[in-house]
Specification:
Elements (H helix, E strand, L loop, with lengths): L10 H16 L14 H14 L3 H9 L2 H6 L9 H10 L2 H14 L8 E9 L6 H7 L6 E9 L5 E9 L5 H11 L5 E2 L5 E2 L2 E3 L29 H16 L6 H14 L8 H18 L1
Helix pairs in contact: 1-2, 1-6, 2-5, 2-11, 3-5, 6-11
């Protein structure tokens, strides 16, 4: 005996709807008064975000839209689809601040402000090419830098609360800490009125140890020298605090950022397609935004 079951909404339709709504509320309708006005800029922004969500090239995205009538309906593209070059130009017009506006709106709608007790930070690397290491070696085109993206993730919601990027080989993550803290601060738990008291805790590994570490942060101090002993009283207290947090199971919350890094690279790609370095950094921010939309 068969029963009628309603079809659930496709996640592609849901992601397209959210991306289009965020773009409509944060981006201008047109970027130039004398543009052809065949597509609104929010429509093109939604196509850009769908491109990175699906991890497709711009040409592949054009073909995918032609085959996806329900997504076209959500994006109000029933009669025409933007060319791959149009989607590419729309991506180049988007700045890092545009992604941050859309991301902030999404987090505000999710009700995350002042809700996180623990915020974990870590960095990950994106390859500047999709070519394998073997091909790079044989062709003589080896890359000596990666696009580094550092994320701050709410341990309860697992949303990416802040993102910052830079170019260069991997090293310590301490320079990322102040920027991540500044952007993610409003999502942490606070008490009091105008003079609010910080009640949330920053979690990170020893790579973030530096001058940006504040009292109460669960960041292990780096042990230097042959003996590896910590002599400074402040750093010794920091080490004892982290050791106690490990025993209590609180420091284990940091592993959620490792999961988020894995999901971002597994679903949305571990390489960067742009050639200009300024655009390469924006791609990493775009991946963080589509991850939040995916949740």
């Amino acid at each position: 005996m068969s029963t009628n079951r309603e079809l659930r909404e496709s996640r592609y339709v849901r992601v397209g709807r959210i991306a289009y709504r965020l773009a409509q509320q944060t981006q201008p309708r047109y970027t130039h008064p004398k543009s052809p006005h065949r597509f609104t800029f929010p429509q093109l922004v939604a196509c850009v975000l769908m491109t990175y969500y699906l991890d497709l090239s711009y040409r592949e995205m054009e073909e995918w839209l032609l085959a996806s009538s329900e997504v076209r309906q959500v994006l109000e593209l029933e009669n025409v689809v933007p060319d791959h070059s149009t989607i590419s130009r729309a991506f180049k017009k988007l700045k890092k601040s545009d992604y941050e506006k859309m991301g902030s709106l999404l987090l505000k709608e999710a009700g995350l402000e002042g809700s996180e007790e623990y915020i974990a930070s870590d960095s990950t690397g994106f390859s500047p090419t999709g070519a394998s290491a073997y091909y790079q070696t044989r062709s003589g085109r080896t890359y000596h830098y990666w696009i580094r993206a550092a994320f701050a993730v709410g341990c309860h919601s697992q949303f990416i609360l802040s993102c910052t990027t830079r170019l260069g080989p991997f090293g310590i993550d301490a320079p990322f800490l102040s920027g991540l803290r500044r952007q993610a601060c409003k999502y942490g738990v606070h008490e009091g009125g105008n003079n609010r008291v910080k009640k949330w805790v920053m979690l990170a590994d020893a790579g973030f140890d530096g001058r940006g570490v504040r009292e109460g942060d669960l960041i292990p101090p780096i042990r230097r020298g042959r003996s590896g002993k910590i002599v400074d009283p402040v750093r010794k207290a920091q080490s004892d605090l982290v050791a106690q947090a490990r025993l209590d199971g609180l420091y284990g919350q940091r592993w959620k950022i490792e999961t988020v890094n894995s999901v971002v690279k597994r679903l949305f790609g571990s390489s960067i397609r742009s050639r200009k370095r300024s655009l390469q950094r924006r791609e990493a921010v775009a991946k963080a935004l589509v991850y939040n939309i995916h949740l």
